[in-house]
Amino acid sequence: MGVGPTGLVGREGELAELAAFLDMAGMDGAVLLLTGEPGVGKTALLDATAELAVAKGMRVVRGSGDEYETDISFAGLHQLVGWLTGELGRLPRSMREALEVALGLGAGPAPSRIAVLNAALSLFDEAAKERPLLLVVDDLHAVDQASRAAVGFVARRLGGRRIGLLGAGRTESDESFRSTGLPELEIAPLGDSDALRLLSRRFAHLPRRVLSTVAHEAQGNPLALLEFAGASGGRHGQGAGWASGQGRDVRALYSARVGRLPHRTREVLLLAALEGSGDIGILEAAGGPGGLDGLAPAERDHLVMVAENGRVVRFRHPLVRAAVVDGSTGEQRRSAHRRLADALADQPERRGDHLARATTAPDEAVAAVVESAARSSLRRGDADGAIARLRRAAELSPDRTVRRRRLSQAAYVAAWVAGHLEVSHEIMREVEGDPAARSLSAAATAGFLVLVTEGDADTAHVLLMEAIEQAPMSPGPPSGELETALFTLTLASQYSGRPEHWQPLSRVLAQLPAASPAAAASLGRVHHDLSSITDGMLRRLDEEISRLRDRSDADVVIRTALTASYLDRLPGCREAVSRVIRDGGAVGSSMPALMFVALDDLYAGRWQPSADAADELIALSEETGYHLFAQVGHYIAAMAAAQRGDLDACRRHCEAVWGWSGPKGLRRLENCAHQAAARAALGAADFETAFRHATAICAPGVLPPFNPEAVWSAPDLVEAAVRTGRHAEARRHADALRDAGVGHLSSRFALSSATVTAMTSAAEDMVRCFEEALGLPGVEQWPFEVGRARLVYGEALRRQGLNREARVQLAAAHGRFEELGARSWEARAAAELRATGMTRTGRGKAGEALTPQELEVARLAATGLSNPQIASRLFLSPRTVSSHLYRVFPKLGITSRAGLRDALEALPPELPATRL
User: What is the pTM of this model?
Assistant: First the structure.
């Protein structure tokens, strides 16, 4: 092998592959990751490829990892976006703002992680409009996790785009990136002959014996070859002595070169090393007038290079940056950080980071800046960054009480948002070792941890009530750590469901003014008494839900969805909670988010997706130690199984809930399992068992406070009571639900209330009451509840001997349950239909004969008559006509009235009509 066109020795094969990569990237998009040991020549190949790309007419944008910025989310992406300010301004406003907020370049609602990634991809698309774009990212192993995710996201979506992504990372350090399955090109050390050829070209004055010794010691690593040989100049007569000396350490060689630079040059290099992005503007502001002039000696010594546009300075190799930092004193680094903090006044998070590194002694002013940066991180959805900054703010806090508060807040974010239980416990051990007085934040975190990991609502309640009772109450709505403590107390009381827990909470809530739907006070009031919710509160909740699309603060999204889940408003939250799950940066919040997705699917009749989400919730909760949340997963899975008629699965999940929650006194979770068990028993027509489970939740005629399952399971209790002859109990419970006035909350509540009223009404009012229930607006979005209402309606009609009318409702119920996959409920409807004398209960299939009445209805519908007009002619109800047409369409192989005429004309004259 020889010298390539770029001057690289022994890399002809790699250069050929990279040239082919550029050709593909310029036409249809491509990605390639160079891997290999440090110093093997990855950066040189990146440089050569970038030069070749420019020669081919491509635009090149570069960035690199920086070990000093790995804890700053999107620091690496910030470098790439910095080259594209013009294109950023041309993006749609929502995308531009998402990137600006995520990168700390603007203020606004925290964008979701997926919004940032999509915006980055769109930005690169915009940059590639006029000519192909090559993105070059060196040192991927040192890129922050958020930027690495962005690079991976873009890399997997380059097909059909004129964009190339070329990265480089160390083989032993880059497993998390390589696991994405991106194409790789491993860069091997040079062979012996190529190593000697490289040395001979660069160090022709050295004896062959010295060059051979260097080649042997460097083992084909190009960086080691050049640096070792360079260090041996002037002592080539002592090759053996050199080979065993300090020159073997390449980092030490770079340190020596840096040490020979002028003091002013080392100052500027230190600023560049600590700043990370290489932004000339920031370095100029931090270095003062004429500061950049000091870069020249480092450029001449090939330690740094300035980009062609003059806006970015880049170290030739990461070891140069490391040598610059290693060669500085602590005071020099602190001084550089202070100057960088001053230059970054408009970037609060980066300013806070540099101030924190510049400060060694407790300083409240600096601590406050760092805490503010943590809040900014949380608004951006960067939970890990918020935790790190809160911990640093605590370290800098002179006041021990304030220090404890900041540490406790970090622990709470770690547990509730990030899902890092071990980190949270670690921080809390530090807090508990501090003899300062217990703070609200400490109580909230300790209570939350013991609740979600052990299900110990008793301890959580004691901790929180004691702290809240000692805290001063301001006139307005609670905020800050008081709000956090109240929210955690509400969770503990909610899962407990016991009077000794919710009664003290109710007394606290009574002292508080009206608050936003996401506030703890609102959640507590909703959970305490659904009937107390006013139309004004519902409007405010709907308005807050409509704003969720612009929010990615996981805490706000989850709290709002939690309140919405009690009031049948989860569909409006679906997009926002799904973002929390997809983004993956808030593992703690993703578990409640999975709950809401599973519940939304459950209520909408999407039972398999609901069960899948519940299973995922159970697995994630058990894996991460959030055992309380796993019980909610078991409840949802039990409900899905109950409605599908999978009695064994339902029993298994219910027993899991009872076994874990019962000994801990978590009555609400026990009630949830009873609700699922009652629903399963009803589907199997085991009404006595259903009554036993339903009355375990509440007594007939009573809807206790802090017991939402009493409201949700009211139709189960009433139906079980009616079918077991307990008519007085059924009427008392129906009256209690009606008197609670929950019908205005949602169409599902309205349907439930109207259905139980119809079930317990007098015989002469029964038809009217059921028809009114089924005629309520909006009920079709609750398919199971509608099918169930038709089933009990049909059963009531049959018991009154109105078989023909009963068949209409029972057939409709049977069809609905068949569509939903509710096997036991479908079987119940089929049995009732058989009791009316109807022997075929399935919806018609193609080729099946029409009954005489179906044929008559079909012929009238084919003439253009409406259902009411047909009903009037045939002395039927419009619903009966609708039911007939429901079975006619599949028998004729059509999907709408438009095909009726042709389908009827095509019927063979000999096709007999049968009567059911």
Answer: 0.68
